[in-house]
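ok so I'm stuck.
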Amino acid sequence: MSLSKSEIRFYKKNGYLVKNKLISLKEINNINKLIKKILTKEEKGKTKIKNLGGSYDNNFVYNSNSSKNREILRLNNPTYYHRLFYNLSRNKKIIKIIKILLGGSVRFHHCKLNFKLPSSKGGEVSWHQDWAFYPHTNDDLVTVGIYLEDCYEENGPLQVLPGSHKNKIFNHHNNQKEFIGKISQKINLKSKKSLIGLAGTVTFHHVRMVHGSGLNLTKNKRPLILFGYNNTDAWPLTVDASVNPNKNFKKYNDCIIDGKIQLTPRFEKIPIKIPLPKKSVSIYQLQKK
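replied:
not stuck anymore, here's the structure
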């Protein structure tokens, strides 16, 4: 499955795309079985939780520091955790689409498995732009979301502001100039669009897209896998969730899925604000500031 010309035009204009049931239910069911095992094991764990699990150095991010009631918000870097996640991140249907959206080459950038806990426990994810977290020399970066369960309005689906990827870069710092991982000014939300879909549906959104998600009003944990990809000529300007090329250039190049090793970044005239100072913690902790 590829993209039609109308879908490509839609993405360029609106900054997002939804491909219904792109991933087979067999693959989704296998992933969900694995996730159930992971959660069951971790929820029974007795190791002490500090700083909500916090950074990418830890496998899990929690809703509280209570070791007795371990409510998991995120599994960091699932592609390193199990081969099934890795295989999904290299799914041919996804990569074929990503290659078109990025203009010809694909490097794997980052991944996470999020859980939106029921009601206010998981809370809303405030409006933000991924670009604020990891600016590059150009903005050919795309985030992919994979629905592991049917996702409707009451589940707190991903919401986007169509066309916002072409507009300004919003401030994600507070009055003390600390990076807080969310837009710190009022924005017009009249055009917001909820990206709902059945299990196996895949969403694609541009790195500058303004997006967020509301409360999960159901009793489930609303799992969502997120994969990030970039063109190989988009070079990171800060250290982020991806492999740092300055520390491990071979590992960074091993992330190339389609394309050649690049030593000449492509620079585009795009507004950038460096996300510093930034603590090495999850978006959940940043947005509580």
